[in-house]
């Protein structure tokens, strides 16, 4: 059986007061339409159709080949929107799932139940409903004596009695495809708004004696649609709770889940502790037994096992195992810290590899450098890697001691076992096991090799 989804994404979203199309506003690091596309994967078999309208170019550009698109112009209601997909789908699919792109909390499991309901339904429609005290402007679901749905009454035309109904229309449907295309052409234009509403298809089926079934949802949060920035914040908070609960159930400790901001797609190993006010973004992979935060931002980075990241910022960086950094350290793109590296407060690393056991003192900057194992970088050390036009590399061997406030003027190579005196300005390569001091630095003696 072929099952295809139609996502409605043509609305202008004027109440968002934004230049960005509503369905591209991010929720937990992904556009809200991404969440809708992920949800429908569990209940459909074919590539989805997205109905676009306002901001169509931006939405189509984002979707790429993940969905086919059809343009609704002008926007004449939900029934009219679904009708735009008729030429693509008529005779090519058995069931059609219709839902809104601005409901990112709707779960794939819920849509799967909806499809299962329709597969067992002798009639042409099954729909999602919810029992709630706050109607949020949703239409009221009116049932027949046999429990099937008779109609959906929109709030603005409902009677006082109908407004007391607690069962609400969520806006998710599964249709028998062949019946749907004919029914769409029989939906009357709404006299007050001049639009064609998909909900009127429910009454068409009911009056024809065809049963309309409803799947009642358990989680009211799933039904939140986004029309304003207030709704956006509500959904963001709900999604964050969902994400954090997932990690905690998989062995991650969160001292205060309400202050842990973790985007969707982040992986975290068991026994890692996430401290308050920690933000983890993008394609980040975190191993086991780490302590992250408090007051830490991690973006598109990879962290091994048993690391400590205190009050620091990482972007596109890599930590191996048993690394500790911070507080107030910054790892920029291309920073790679090997096993057992220590990086003190107010240090910065960019496009550099610090090999195993390197100790990097506070107030230091390391850029475009390769640092050998067990080297000590004294406080205030700076790699002077940019000459105003090009970046230049610094190579430091293993077991080197760089004195405090050393300036390393690249391009530069410092041999294994060498030492620099405090305040040295090193402009020329330094041989192995050599001590250099002064400005510019000069060699004063060879050092005895340490016994290992």
Top keywords for this entry?
alpha/beta, Spore Coat Polysaccharide Biosynthesis Protein SpsA, Chain A, nine-stranded parallel β-sheet, 42 strands
Tell me about this structure.
With 452 residues, this protein is an alpha/beta fold. It has 2 domains: 3-223, Spore Coat Polysaccharide Biosynthesis Protein SpsA, Chain A (Alpha-Beta Complex); 229-446, UDP N-Acetylglucosamine Acyltransferase, domain 1 (3 Solenoid), CATH 2.160.10.10. The protein has 8 helices and 42 strands. A hairpin with a 5-residue loop joins strand 8 and strand 9. The model has no long low-confidence stretch (mean pLDDT 96).
The N- and C-terminal alpha carbons lie at a distance of 71 Å
Q: State the helicity in percent bands.
A: 10-25%
Structural class: alpha/beta
Total domains, how many?
A: 2
Structure summarized in a few sentences:
The protein has 452 residues and is of the alpha/beta class. It is 17% helix and 31% strand.
């Amino acid at each position: 059986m072929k099952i295809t989804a139609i996502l409605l994404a043509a609305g202008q979203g004027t109440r968002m007061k934004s230049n960005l199309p509503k369905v591209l506003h991010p929720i937990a690091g992904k556009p809200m339409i991404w969440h809708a596309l992920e949800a429908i994967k569990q209940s459909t078999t074919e590539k989805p159709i997205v109905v676009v309208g306002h901001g169509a170019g931006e939405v189509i550009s984002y979707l790429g080949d993940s969905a086919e698109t059809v343009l609704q112009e002008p926007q004449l209601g939900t029934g009219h929107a679904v009708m735009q997909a008729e030429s693509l789908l008529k005779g090519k699919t058995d069931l059609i799932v219709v839902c809104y792109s601005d409901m990112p909390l709707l779960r794939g499991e819920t849509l799967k139940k909806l499809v299962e309901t329709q597969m067992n339904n002798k009639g042409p429609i099954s729909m999602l409903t919810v029992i709630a005290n706050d109607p949020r402007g949703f239409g009221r679901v009116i049932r027949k004596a046999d429990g099937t749905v008779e109609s959906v009454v929109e709030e603005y035309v409902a009677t006082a009695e109908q407004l007391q109904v607690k069962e609400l229309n969520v806006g998710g449907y599964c249709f028998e495809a062949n019946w749907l295309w004919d029914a769409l052409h029989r939906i009357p234009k709404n006299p007050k708004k001049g639009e064609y509403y998909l909900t009127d298809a429910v009454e068409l089926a009911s009056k024809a004696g065809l049963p309309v079934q409803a799947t009642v949802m358990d989680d009211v949060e799933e039904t939140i649609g986004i029309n304003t920035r207030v709704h956006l914040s509500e959904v963001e908070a709900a999604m964050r709770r969902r994400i954090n609960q997932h990690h905690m159930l998989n062995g991650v400790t969160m001292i205060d889940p309400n202050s842990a901001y973790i985007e969707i797609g982040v992986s975290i190993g068991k026994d890692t502790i996430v401290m308050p006010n920690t933000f983890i973004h993008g394609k980040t992979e975190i191993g086991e037994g780490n302590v992250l935060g408090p007051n830490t931002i991690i973006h598109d980075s990879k962290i091994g096992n048993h690391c400590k990241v205190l009050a620091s910022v990482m972007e596109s960086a890599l930590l191996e195992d048993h690394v500790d950094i911070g507080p107030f350290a910054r790892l920029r793109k291309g920073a790679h810290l090997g096993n057992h590296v220590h990086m003190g407060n107010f240090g910065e690393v960019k496009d550099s590899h610090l090999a195993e056991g390197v100790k990097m003192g506070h107030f230091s900057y390391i850029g475009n450098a390769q640092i050998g194992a067990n080297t000590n970088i004294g406080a205030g050390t700076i790699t002077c890697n940019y000459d105003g036009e090009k970046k230049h590399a610094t190579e430091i061997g293993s077991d080197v001691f760089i004195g405090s406030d050393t300036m390393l003027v690249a391009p530069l190579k410092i041999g294994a076992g060498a030492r620099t005196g405090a305040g040295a300005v090193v402009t020329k390569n330094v041989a192995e096991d050599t001590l250099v001091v002064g400005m510019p630095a000069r060699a004063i003696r060879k050092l005895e090799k340490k016994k290992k």
